[in-house]
Design brief:
Layout lengths: L40 H16 L7 H8 L4 E3 L6 H8 L7 H23 L10 H26 L21 H18 L14 H14 L3 H14 L22 E5 L25 H5 L7 E3 L1 H4 L15 H5 E3 L3 E2 L4 E2 L10 E3 L2 E3 L1 E3 L19 E5 H14 L3 H12 L19 H15 L6 H10 L23 H6 L13
Antiparallel strand pairs: 1-3, 2-10, 4-9, 5-6, 7-8
Helix pairs in contact: 1-4, 1-5, 2-4, 4-5, 5-6, 5-7, 6-7, 7-8, 8-12, 12-13, 12-14, 13-14
Length: about 525
Amino acid sequence: MKKIILLSTIFLLAFAISCNEEDLDKLNPNGVTFDTYFNNAAELTAGVNSIYSIVQGLNLGAREYFFLHDMRSDDVATGGGQLEAHRAQLLNGVHDPANGVTVANWTGWYRTIHRANVIIKKGPEIPATAISESLRNRLIGEARFMRAWAYYEIATLFGGGPIYTSFVESVDGSAPRSSADEMYAVAIEDLKFADANLPATYGNADRGRATKGAAQMLAARVHLQKGDYNSAKAELQKIVSSGTYSLAPDYSLNSVEEGEFGVESIFEIAYSPSNGAFNWGGDGDGAGIQEETVRSQEYAPIAWRNLIPSDKLLNTFEHVDKGDAKSDPRFQYSFYVSGDTYNNGTLTLTDDKVQGNTSNVRGETKKVSWKKYTIMYKSAAANQQSGINLRVMRYADALLLLAECENELGNSAAAIALVNQVRARPGVEMPPLPTANIPTGTQAQLRAAIQRERQVELAGEQVRNADILRWRKHGKLASEPISYFQANKHELLPIPQNELDNNPNMDQGDQNPGY
């Protein structure tokens, strides 16, 4: 499914969330409607594909999803004055309910929910003569996985919001705010269905669709946000015991085109190269829309370089200068430093090619930039739009989450073995824990070691924010990692003001503390 056939027309009828149109009940008599569409397998498949198109689009995977998660973590810093004001606000903790990045994510996830609800409702109504039962359940399973992902994101980031389990056809159908736990409950039920009905793998034509392993991984993430380590462990053990996944033979394959859908990949957002014709218009609907991401353009050293790795992240990596036995090679796989080569080794990166701020790395001032997900490893173009798939879930993440569960459940030996499995991966081969600088003798020490390992292994992969949120929530942080953090405010993002203004069942009293 590297290139998804998109369906958009049918979904333009009924999206009423955060919408103040007064004539939503007026339909084009010549257009398709919910009553006249979804009559066979092809139409249901097209509807499911349209859910993926939302997640691919500008509001989510192609741009605002990675910005939101990275800027809410301690993985990044501003690349310089070129960073847009609304992004700088979020990075510095001075955002408000109108912040464009948070509004884009909220809108994108609710559009995902809406389209998923259409499939979940209409799928069972298709006659058995027009679709096989296994395909029907698989497609509904994909929709329920995507809806569960959306509710996980909204609950984790915003602390809850309206729950919709059927599609909305008018403003009168707007729902009141529900709690994060209520959203997690919906997600868990969706993921049970997805786990039971999704395949472990697909053929090449359907790569990129949600799998059984993706449902299990997302369920583990939900349980961890709830602090339920036993349930999370059970889901993660399914992934490990399945034999479907393994660590990639080359760490760098996890963020380049050549490694897409590799042995380590559990779920990724798929893109297709289109020679710089990125759809800046929004959700990526329509057969002619190019499926690209601007991740490389936003972060690459020879492009906009809006965000760079934080000094804290850079100095977390083990290095012989710090007394470690070995310098962690994941540093060079994750970041560009002046003197590195690019464009298939034919060009050398120099400071004059790189705009913006410098970094402090072990006491030295350098220009350091992101390498992960940047296309310049094989391109010299300043236009860095690309088709590199965004890896949302991978096996190393599952192993480290399982290590976290084992440690919290008192199984330190199992936890250490899992961390060391990741550290010993080909091309990384770091010394096993404990080391002189990374002790593991107590549960607290091992917890810190796992948290450190997750940061360096998964740097810039949009997991650090959720990690910090759950560790903070459950008292697992030795110290607060976010410099601007204010209690009773920055735990959650603000509910978008346009939701409070336009949803008749919500008001300012539903806003999160501090906003």
